[in-house]
Amino acid sequence: MRIALALLLLALPLAAAKKPTAAQLESQVRRLTEERDNLKQRLAATEDLQQELAGVKKARDLMQSEAETARKETDQLRATLKENQGGGDAILNELQAAKQAAAEAKAEAGRLKVENEALQHKVSALPGEGDLVPLGEDLQPAKAINLNRATPRLKSSGLLSTRPKGVVVVNVLINEKGDVVAARLIQGLPGDSLDAKEAGEACVEAAKHIVFDPASSKDGKTRFKVWQGVGFYLD
Q1: Sheet containing 180-187: which strands, arranged edge to edge?
Q2: What would you report as the CA-atom Rg of the chain, rounded to the nearest whole angstrom?
Q3: How many CB atoms are located within 10 Å of the residue 17 CB?
Q4: 150 near 230, Cβ under 8 Å?
């Protein structure tokens, strides 16, 4: 009995160690193949993911490099703009100064033009020899040469009448030769008496016979015709 039991116990492991069938092997092969394929797919997916990660990292690094380059260019552009702004202000100031200088030069040119025209007009308006001119500081007045000999001839209205007294002023027109060409009374004796009237007429007639050194320019080169007053003192 014990021997039979021992043989039975030995037969069980042998039965368990019995070789698998072909179907079992094929099934095991399919399963292993599927597992292999799954592993390959997972590995390929992992490789794709790693490649994507590498691409993302590369793109990130490129973007960071581009951002750094853009930052440097921005800083350089800001510095250039700041420098150009300073230069632009200087140029603007110079332009404004040039415009102001040009305006001042234009105004000065206008003033000089007006002054030059006035001088030319003055030069062209200078009187010539024998022209009638008014007496002024730029002229030498005529000087009477024979005033003492040109005395008025007064008439006496009667034996008891007295000679008229006072100052008579006659305006005479003296030409460039010193001759009196016209005379007129500008101040007679006071009153409306006949003696006063005759005294005025006598002075006008006497003034016509005065000889003058004619009026002339300051340098004496040009002689002019002038109206000039002559006074007679009657006593």
Answers
A1: 180-187, 166-174, 226-234
A2: 69
A3: 7
A4: no
Extract the tokens encoding 34: 């599927």
3-class state of residue 223 by DSSP = strand
For residues 13 and 185, what is the distance between their CA atoms, to the nearest angstrom?
A: 183
Contact 135, 215 (CB under 8 A): yes
pLDDT digits (tens, 9 = 90+) for 11-69: 555 444 567 788 888 888 888 888 888 778 777 776 776 787 677 778 778 878 887 88
| 132-164 pLDDT, tens digit each | 898 888 889 999 998 888 888 887 655 445 677
Q: Give me the sign of the Cα torsion angle 218, 219, 222, 223.
A: positive
The alpha-helical segments, DSSP class H, found in the chain are 2-16, 22-124, 194-207
> Could you please report the per-residue DSSP string of 57-118?
HHHHHHHHHHHHHHHHHHHHHHHHHHHHHHHHHHHHHHHHHHHHHHHHHHHHHHHHHHHHHH
